[in-house]
Amino acid sequence: MRALIFAIIFIFSTSPFSLSSVISDIDKSNIELSTRFDGTSILVFGAISPENDSTSLLIEIIGPSTSVNIRKKVQIWGIWINKKIAHFQDIPSFYQISISNPEHPVLIEIENQKLKSLFYDFLEINSTPNDGNVVEQYYDELTRLKKKLGKLSAFEKQVNIIDKKLFSHKVNLPKKIHPGIYKIKMTLIDQQGIELSKSEQSVKVSKVGIQEFLSYNSKNNPPVFYGLFSVIIALFLGFSAAQLFRWLYR
Known about the structure:
The protein has 250 residues and is an alpha+beta fold. The protein has 5 helices and 13 strands. The protein has 2 domains: 2-208, Sandwich (Immunoglobulin-like); 210-250. It has helices at 2-14, 107-118, 134-148, 210-220, 223-248; strands at residues 21-26, 30-33, 40-49, 56-62, 65-76, 79-92, 95-99, 123-125, 152-158, 160-162, 166-173, 180-189, 195-207. The model has no long low-confidence stretch (mean pLDDT 81).
């Protein structure tokens, strides 16, 4: 497999293509989420043709969309409840961005613009906040939690470039990831952050086995059926474990 990857990279590097262009590929296009899934990695590789030494390569990994509710404990009629006060709609469940030049002059501006367009702009406040900084607080808390869970990373890893032509980058996906399509975007930028060329790949992450069955039924069947089925599975597993221990220790 490794020999095949480097052979493809060699073909990319020796084939003629115009200045400010990028050609890319990945080592896998499908990932299966089973009960034994413990995280995985994706190798992104290819070739670039930069205009000059100041050209940098950005690599972004954007996971399928999800929604996040912001709740706060409030007292209603003497009872404390968790009330939904804000909502992040259709934000990436996973996002990682890396660059080949960690000393890029507008790196902070690129990070702020990318995260704002993917997360900050999709915050919906249910009521008018008294504190004008509350939106920034919700946004900061969301990004903090995602970074803690390994689902958000901004310029923590450097894209490896060899001989100013070949590049490779390893993307680590955590154990708990959402199924769906993960987009991998490669972008050549200049010193001002202006995009010069793009390339895109995609990886399909899907549930298999019992996880696929449970996920399908939870979405397409009534809650009563799903609840009863879960109880039956729990009883069956408990009975099987009891019988196994009884057989071992008799």
